[in-house]
Amino acid sequence: MSPFIRENSDKPARVLARTFFRELRENGYSDEQILWFSSEMIDCLNKDLNRRTQVQN
Q1: Which residues contact 29 (CB under 8 A, 6 or more apart)?
Q2: Does the pLDDT value for residue 8 go beyond 80?
């Protein structure tokens, strides 16, 4: 992980989220589609966290 991201952990995530949101809106995605995308991102994170937790145990 880059030092910038570690030291400023909330700002890059906020910028990335807003950029994704703006891109989705500009490309005609609906509220429902953006919610689906967000849910899929959270699902991916949950699966990754679970996998890493199992590997550590």
Answers
A1: 37
A2: no
